[in-house]
Amino acid sequence: QVQLVESGGGLLQAGGSLRLSCSASGRAFSSYAMGWFRQAPGKEREFVAAINRSGGNSDYAGSVNGRFTISRDNAKSTVYLKMNSLIPKDTAVYYCAAEPYRLDGVRGRRPALYDYWGQGTQVTVSS
């Protein structure tokens, strides 16, 4: 089992930057593939980024590619999402997710693939 807690969200103007953190408690954080998802009002949860267990491979949604960077520090049991050049369409609740994937690759883009989820952190970008 693993418990996930997101932090770092807030309110900022377009063009600004934020770094979200997801702290995990439990056994063997390095055995989990990790992902970031977001959900805006009235919309379904959508994929943002994913990273493999060892941190050497990542995947991004087209809408954030080139602006966001996912990373992890297994010694600190934490995964990060660095967000640059934020725009109002980035406004959403951001969630981190974990999956005990047996392979050292990105898990995928579907929310149903991930077993564990955090409570989410709000990111609001004004124009």
In terms of topology, how is this protein built?
Elements: E1 2-7, E2 10-13, E3 18-26, E4 33-39, E5 46-51, E6 58-60, E7 68-73, E8 78-83, E9 92-99, E10 116-117, E11 121-126
Parallel strand pairs: 2-11
Antiparallel strand pairs: 1-3, 3-8, 4-5, 4-9, 5-6, 7-8, 9-10, 9-11
Identify low-pLDDT runs: none
**How large is the radius of gyration?**
14 Å
The largest β sheet comes out as: 7 strands, mixed
**Proportion of strand residues:** over 45%
Question: Helix content range of the residues, please?
Answer: under 10%
How far is the N terminus from the C terminus? 40 Å
Q: Give me the secondary-structure category.
A: mainly beta
Order of helices and strands: EEEEEEEEEEE
How many β strands by DSSP?
11
Shape: globular
Task: Report the mean per-residue pLDDT as an integer.
Answer: 96
Q: Give the count of helical stretches.
A: 0
